[in-house]
Here is the input.
Amino acid sequence: MKQAIISQRQKKFIEEIDSTSSFLWLLDSLDGLSFFAKDNEFRLIFANPYFYRRLGLRSEKELLGKNDFELFPEPLARKFRKDDEWVLTNSKPMTGLVELFLTQQGIPAWYQTNKFPIINRMGETIGVMGTVQRYEKTGLDLTKDKKIQTVMEQIRRDCRNAPKMSAVAKENGLSHRQLNRRFKEVTGLTPQQFLLRARVGKACAWLRESSRSLAEIGYDLGFCDQSAFTAQFRKRMQMTPRQYRLQYGKS
Here is the structure.
């Protein structure tokens, strides 16, 4: 009975809230946490300042009505759309996703993403909303799977040495198949995909901050030659390493 009374109070309180003001003020004040909301056609309808400023935009109006393919490199947009479609179709959240996202400078970095269905008063899912926060700042503890947390740290630390996934699995008491399945459950990626993203992230840092040659960077990151490095980089970033250096490197 007591719980029913509380639920009624909550319902009445929520119905009286002007949703265009109170909660949006709160979302606008969040520092270090990006918030977004999309309709059922995956067009952005809300975004807080931390979200749109990281895209180099000055106001929310500049991105309203746009979709991810108009704002992000295609590989990132495809991943975001796939997850959005799952949330919209299943009316269930996806939380704790660890994925590449762009910083305000257009630099790829690791972020933790949470996505939730937006449900109307008729019980229909009409959109997707979520939060994005820098991975290093979340204090993320993958306590549900300590072994996978260890593997993630090992891959990020040793991405230059191209660790073999079979050896990584064995070191952590897992079969290759178990590693793939459990790793994907935690991160949404296979270990090999995670490794490639870690390499690209490291390459971006070197391209921005050093004068090392493209061949040297590719070799040090375990690519067989410069063309293989360039192909993987272009696949992830939609530009060549040379183009990235020209755009983001130190002058």
Summary: The domain at 146-248 is CATH 1.10.10.60 (Arc Repressor Mutant, subunit A).
